[in-house]
Every structure is written in C-alpha cells, then in structure tokens.
C-alpha cells in the first residue's frame, strides 16, 4: 500500500492481489449506512492522527483483501470466511481506547485458539499469520490465551507495512 499525502489530504493506493469477497445482494442499504457511521464514530474517537491514519489504512486494506470488518459497540473484529463454519473467524480486533476483549486492546492481530480449533481447514495458514504478527517489532502479547500481538498507538504507524504484509500473506495463502 502506498500512502500519498498533500495539504489536508491523505490518499492510499493499493494493488489488488486477491479478489474481494462477493457482495452480498441481501445486504441492505441501512446496514451499509450503519457500518459507515460506526466506522466514522470509531475513527473520530482516536485522538492521535498518526494512529487514526494507520487504523484507517488497515480498514481499507482489509476491505481490499476481502477481510470483513465487523463493527460492534466498542470497535471491530477483522474476520475471514472459512468452509468449516457459518460464522467467519476473527483474525484481529480494533478496540476503542479503554476497551478490551480477552486482553485484546487497541489493534490486536492474531486468533483465539478456541475459535481456530473449530476451523481446521485454515489452521495452518492462520497459525502462520499469528506467528508472523507476533514477530513484528513493538507488538505486545496479550495476557490471555489469544495467539496474537497488540499494537499500541505509539507503535502501529511505524509497523503498518509489516501488518499489511501479514494480512496480505494470509489472504494469499488461503486463496492458494
């Protein structure tokens, strides 16, 4: 991903390396509008502009790669479809300041081992992804059973390229 900046403007250019998920015709306009509002509210709650831009870049990259960004009351889960179950598998979380889930905070990338156990068809690729994100400098292991790394606001902008690489490699491996 390339970030272009100018006076009061930031743009991102990406190269598509995987097809995005098919558009669900049943998805309503109301649901799409609600997602946009939740995303805007979440981003506006982030005070640090560099961190906000990094989170915005991750959201854009996930959407380009076909990774679902599922918004909740305190943030979002990054989810991939698997053939093993109807509900997508979470491979990351973006949580508001002060919020947490199983010790996941800020931007946490990885997987819940209990959920992964229900999706053996993607286990090897997701475990490789988890190891890759845990090797990114500045990531902190959550104090829980999550196989993941948390990237605080001071760290995420500096490792955005590595995060992008991990997400891209996961999607490429799953698509192979």
Task: Please outline the helices and strands.
Layout: E1 2-6, E2 9-13, H1 29-44, H2 49-65, E3 68-72, E4 75-80, E5 89-95, E6 107-111, H3 113-116, H4 123-134, E7 147-151, H5 160-175
Antiparallel strand pairs: 1-2, 3-4, 4-5, 5-6, 6-7
Backbone CA Rg = 15 Å
**What percent strand?**
15-25%
Report on the biggest sheet: 5 strands, antiparallel
Number of domains: 1
Taken from the alpha-carbon principal axes, the silhouette is globular
Alpha-carbon distance between the two ends: 21 Å
Helix-residue proportion: 25-40%
In round numbers, the mean pLDDT is 86
Write out the strand line-up for the largest beta sheet, numbering strands in chain order: 3-4-5-6-7
**Order of helix and strand elements from N to C terminus:** EEHHEEEEHHEH
Low-confidence stretches: 19-29
Give the total of beta strands: 7
Question: Pairing-aware structural class of the strands and helices?
Answer: alpha+beta
Alpha plus pi helix count: 5
């Amino acid at each position: 991903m390339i970030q272009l900046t100018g006076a009061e403007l930031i743009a991102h250019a990406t190269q598509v390396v995987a097809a995005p998920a098919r558009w669900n015709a049943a998805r309503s306009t109301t649901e799409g509008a609600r997602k946009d509002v939740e995303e805007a509210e979440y981003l506006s709650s982030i005070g640090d502009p560099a961190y906000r831009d990094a989170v915005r870049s991750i959201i854009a990259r996930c959407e380009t790669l076909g990774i679902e960004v599922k918004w909740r009351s305190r943030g979002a889960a990054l989810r991939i479809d698997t053939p093993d179950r109807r509900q997508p598998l979470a491979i990351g979380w973006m949580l508001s300041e002060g919020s947490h889930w199983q010790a996941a905070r800020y931007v946490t990338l990885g997987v819940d081992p209990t959920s992964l156990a229900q999706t053996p068809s993607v286990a090897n690729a997701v475990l490789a992804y988890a190891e890759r994100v845990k090797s990114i400098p500045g990531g902190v292991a959550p104090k829980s059973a999550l196989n993941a790394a948390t990237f605080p606001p001071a760290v995420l902008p500096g490792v955005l390229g590595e995060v992008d690489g991990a997400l891209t490699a996961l999607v490429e491996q799953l698509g192979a």
